[in-house]
Structures are given as structure tokens and as C-alpha cells.
Write a structure and sequence with these properties.
This protein is mostly helical. Among the domains are: 101 residues, Tetratricopeptide repeat domain (Serine Threonine Protein Phosphatase 5, Tetratricopeptide repeat, Alpha Horseshoe), CATH 1.25.40.10; 66 residues, no CATH class. α6 packs across α7 and α10 crosses α12. The longest helix has 17 residues.
């Protein structure tokens, strides 16, 4: 029986108000600790269930989340107050004065209801202010708001434009989301070649699901020429970073690789690993898991 086609899911920055079904649930930026632990546990379980149901096609879902913001320093490097009340007052003052980092963090507070009443419209106001000043993370968040219809009307065309701006600014989650949009033809003309290009850029910045989706594209000849060696190298890298589904598929490919493709794949995997030398956490994890990855 054929599996129902499933669209890739983009990375988002905010937790939904109500928990959806496992196939719809998305983990998001870290919610406020100490409040509603049951909700947090349920969301985690839902995400894990969804990961287990991964289908090997370009329609893989992603349940990665955007990186948590840095609350300690402003754009100028001056320490921010750690007391919540003082922090909010400081952010409001600096945001009104035009500091894009303060505008971004204020948008995150309102978008998560963290220390303030949840208000997506106010969040959108501050994200847009920071995005208009060229802050990639804020541009990404504007894309999320337009994709999800939070504080603004759903508009995938505008979401795609904001993801493109943030991706061009080098923000990895935006690179991944833009690839998903190109793969699905969501808010933008479908273009699997461009999807592969943006998956590659996100993958080279450590987005594991981008590695897996890029491997799928090489595996299935979608947007790139079929290449078992390239598919194996990317599956192997994702497996080294903890993606068990990628590890399983890498093992399946390894069993049928020709000696020439196997040698080429190992060289490609080594080149990919070398690209992460400037990211110690990723490099260390790849080194630690090297022995258990299929060869």
C-alpha cells in the first residue's frame, strides 16, 4: 500500500497555543521554564513520534527548532539586565531607540508570552522593525509569522520572501525553510534544483534534517543527478549527528555500493566532516560517532 504523500515541514520559532496531533506538532524555541511541564512533555513526545514515522522521500518532515536567542548581550556588547522586569524595561527602551537586537528580543518575548502577555501582532511589529534593519534572525521570524498566520494574515509568498532575505544573510533555519518552500512549491515556484542548493547550504551549517533531505535528493535523483556516493556521504554525516533513520538508510546503501562509489563516498564524508572543523560541537559529535556509523 502506498504511503500518503507528506510535505516537508519548516522550522518555526514559536510553540502553538494548543498541542496538535503528532503529525502536525512542531517543537519550537524553548518555552518558559517552570510553566506547564505537561505541555512540554507532550510536545516532546509528539515530536519523537513524528520522527519515528519518517518516510524516505524528499517529503521528509523536519522537527528541528530554531536556536535559542542570546539573552546576555546587546548588539553593542553591553550586558543586558538579568532581572525580568528590568530586562523588559531595558529592551523596550533600546527597541524604541532603534537597536535591532533589542527589537528582535522584544519580539521573541511577545511571540512566546515570556514575561509579557502573548501578542503576535506586537511581536510582528518588533520583528519587522529588526528585519527592516537587516537582522537575519528577525527576517526568519517574519517568515514564520507569515507562514503560520500569527499576528499577520497567512501569506506564503511573503513568507518565502522573508526566508530568502534571511537565507541570503546566512541564517541556517531560513536556508532550510527556503529549501522546503522550493521543494513544495510553497509561496514560490517549485524548483528542486534550488531546493537542493539551499538544503546543501543549511546542511553545511549543521542542520541535520537538511543533510538528510539532501541525501534523499541524491538517492532519488530529485533536483540533482542520482549519486549513491553523495547520498551515502550525507546520510553518513546525518547519522554521525544522531539521525537514526539516516543511519539505517546509510547501511542499506553501503550494502550495494560499488568499491569505487564506496571509496568516493568516504572521501566526500571526510570533506564534509572537515567543513565542520570550525564548529567544535558538530566536529566532536561526528568524531565520537564515527566508529558506530555504517561503512
Amino acid at each position: 500500500m502506498r504511503r500518503k504523500r507528506r510535505e516537508p515541514v519548516t522550522i518555526t520559532a514559536f510553540a502553538p497555543t494548543l498541542l496538535k496531533t503528532p503529525s502536525e506538532a512542531l517543537p519550537h524555541a524553548k518555552p518558559k521554564w517552570g510553566r506547564n511541564w505537561c505541555y512540554l512533555a507532550a510536545l516532546t513526545v509528539a515530536a519523537l513520534l513524528a520522527l519515528v514515522s519518517v518516510v524516505w522521500s524528499v517529503d521528509l518532515r523536519s522537527f528541528a527548532s530554531a536556536a535559542a536567542p542570546d539573552w546576555s548581550f546587546s548588539a553593542a556588547g553591553a550586558p543586558w539586565p538579568r532581572d525580568p522586569t528590568s530586562l523588559l524595561a531595558h529592551l523596550q527602551r533600546e527597541a524604541q531607540a532603534g537597536d535591532p537586537e533589542a527589537q528582535l528580543q522584544l519580539g521573541i518575548l511577545y511571540g512566546r508570552g515570556d514575561g509579557v502577555e502573548l501578542d503576535y501582532e506586537v511581536a510582528a511589529k518588533w520583528f519587522r522593525a529588526a528585519a527592516d534593519q537587516g537582522l537575519p534572525r528577525a527576517q526568519f521570524d517574519m517568515g514564520v509569522l507569515y507562514e503560520r498566520g500569527r499576528g499577520v494574515q497567512i501569506d506564503n509568498t511573503k513568507a518565502a520572501r522573508w526566508y530568502l532575505k534571511a537565507a541570503e544573510g546566512g541564517y541556517p533555519p531560513a536556508e532550510y525553510n527556503l529549501a522546503v518552500f522550493y521543494a513544495n512549491g510553497q509561496g514560490i515556484d517549485q524548483d528542486l534544483t534550488k531546493a537542493a542548493l539551499w538544503y546543501r547550504r543549511a546542511a553545511l551549517q549543521g542542520v541535520v534534517q537538511a543533510m538528510t533531505n539532501l541525501a534523499v535528493m541524491y538517492d532519488k535523483s530529485q533536483g540533482v543527478p542520482a549519486s549513491p556516493a553523495d547520498a551515502y556521504a550525507w546520510y553518513l554525516t546525518a547519522a554521525g549527528l544522531g539521525n537514526h533513520a539516516a543511519e539505517q538508510r546509510a547501511g542499506e546503501i553501503a550494502a550495494v555500493l560499488s568499491p569505487a562509489d564506496r571509496n568516493r563516498a568516504k572521501l566526500l564524508a571526510a570533506e564534509i566532516a572537515a567543513a565542520f572543523k570550525s564548529s567544535p560541537q558538530i566536529a566532536d559529535k561526528l568524531d565520537n560517532n564515527a566508529d558506530r556509523s555504517p561503512r
